[in-house]
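Lecture 7 notes. Example A: sequence first, then its structure tokens.
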Amino acid sequence: MRRTIIDLRNIMQREGMDAWISPSSDAHQSEYPGEYDKCRRFLSGFTGSAGTLLVMKEEAFLWTDGRYFLQADAELKDSGITLMKMGEPGVPTLDEFLEEKMKSGEVLGFNGALLSFAEGKVIANKVVKKGVKLKIGRDITGEIWSDRPKRPHSKIFILEEKYSGKSAALKINEVREKMGDSDLLVVSSLSDIAWLTNLRAFDIKCNPLFLSYFILEKERALLFVQEEALSEEVNIYLKQQDMEVLPYDDFDKYVDGINNKKVLYDEAD
């Protein structure tokens, strides 16, 4: 039995959770999450790029696809985690499994930032009707990951208009015009934010992107970003383009404060 699974179960017991989902994604559904965000790998020991871990009180399961069956068999040996071979006959999907196994009154937990709205909705639709409660919140994995790598924050640079085609201010105004009667637009896709701001960096492997969130209101454009990634030049640029800078870690708190407003967002993010 992996020590990480034992430690996670101790936290689950403290938090009153009967099951915990750990996906492979980061908060932006990036194809190549950074080392900081590889919680599923840390917990399970499975190093493949795709997979979802489910830890319950007495059992644990990991879903992955055919590219990784042999690798997962080897890496999960003696871990106490059962391999669920996706697409194979008789192997249920994660949501089907949860619907079958979880009972009324039990609590299913996961870090809401790591599952897209669409994924979370599928799971919720399966289990809530059975009386299962959801505990969507923080990343409890961080409590047991003592040597967790730092979150990347490479220096952000400006993409000149001769390459981007339009100024960020113009793009922002054009998007506002498409918002209709909505009060705000929430953007978590890093590629969308890079396009909208005309900024680039190298926080994500193989992609010129930077960790950030963007909220567009009728009168304000808010960029949530790690302050360490900003140079004086970029700070001046952001002011020129009428964008306000807020700390990356303040995004969740800001969203929690949104009430009685019509919000646009992409369910895939």
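Example B, a different protein, same format:
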Amino acid sequence: MTEPFFQPFEGGNYRSQNKFPGRLLIVGESCYLTEKDKHPGFTNNLMNDVIRCGLTSHSKTRYYRNLFHVLKDKPAREATQEEWEGLWSAIAFYIFVQSTEITRPLQRPTRQEWEEAKAPFLNVLARLKPDFVLLTGSQL
């Protein structure tokens, strides 16, 4: 098994949380990057920004706001900052396709990038030991 380039985000309460019936790993399909994003801590930086600014930065956090609604059965616009932070601290988040070549919205991963994503994902599953995995995206 190979190690993922973008390390997964693990919320501070992921292992001890009580918001779900067990540990929840959310897997995003892929993401597009700028040059400054191409480092192993990208996912953690991204999620820390979502936690900090997600309720006020509507255009850049639509995906996360939708996830909040699905997981809490409550629109993000009705959430308090405490509820918002509590949800993200209780989950782990991983980007499946670990490509640094996706640089614009709607750019799709190649077949090779899909294949290369499998081994690092198995490594993440073994390390995080989720009870549940929520896969998001149209092809994942």
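Note on Example B: The mean pLDDT is 90. The helical segments are 42-53, 62-72, 81-89, 111-128.
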